Amino acid sequence: MLKNKDRLLTLFLTFLKIGAFTFGGGYAMIPLIQKEVTENHKWLSDEDILNIVAIAESTPGPIAINSATFVGYMTCGVVGSVLATLGVVLPAFIFIALISLLLQNIMDIQAVQYAFMGIRAGVLALVIKALISMYKQCPKNLVAYIIAGLAFAVTLLTDISILYVIIACAVIGLVTSMVMKKKEAEAK
Amino acid sequence: MTEVSLLTLFFTFFKIGLFTFGGGYAMLPFIQQEVLHNSWIDEATFVNFVGISESSPGPFAINIATFIGMEKAGWLGAALSTLGVVLPSFLVILIVAQFYLKFKNSPLVAGVMSGLKPAAVGLIAAAVITMVQEVLFPAAFSWDVFLGAQIYVSLAIFALGLWLLLKLKKHPIFIICVSAVLGIAAGYIFGL
User: Do B78 and A97 touch (CB under 8 A)?
Assistant: First the structure.
């Protein structure tokens, strides 16, 4: 029992650390999660992490939250999932809430403005890397290119709700994959 | 500025959390659309938010939900927006975890994902274009920007970041630290 309590605390603190030290989104978090969970604590195997990331990508919401919830659940059940998720959210929440309150004072400091200017340029590199890795995992066929192009153009050029863009893309993907399967079956 | 109730904050971010696939960055245009469409905050404030959010620890979606919640309704607003954006992920994962191998191998999920993966690429590409505009032309596009030093500083830091990330496989935290230091140095050297 004590061991389990220790593990829950370690789980919370590990994800607190991951939440506090990752800048720029969920993809930046995955290598950290992998290192902590498989190498440092040996809670899960590399294959587990691959499965978790695959599921996290196929479920709605931020990848960091999905992965934290999943790792927490697989390590210590529902309590683990709550603690891991809380851990990964808490640093961002507190940091941003305080920044939001102190925005004026902080932005008056010249060095902070300069630092943020540099960080914003650096984050472009992180986002482009995320884009590249998304592209690499993306199916490479005509349908995929058309969907990506449509989502891109509609988002950038029109006011159509992204909700509809996402639903339309999901339906196109489902229908075309079913049609292709049927064709394959008929060819056999 | 529009008044936003706590319930509206919660449900808006719940919707965003429920319908965004492919990570926080795919969420950016969605949040931008919801927030700007409903004129919760003006464009300048939003760009400010995005800039700071990008430079803060934690998942992107959490940062921006907390930020907007705080701006519209204080601590309670921040808590409810964040809860809203987290809850769909949390609940869906708890359900999926029960049968995750079946979920992973389901042809239905594979079909839907064959549409959502390229969609996320398109959405993130659109968000990247917006971010590039924000970083290189903070006010608006203008040829005068090319006469100042800031755009070249930003481009240099961006190129260096890309090189460190893709070629030297440096950790994102390292790139953030280098970018911040270079930003401060360039800021004082060029008097930006």
Answer: yes
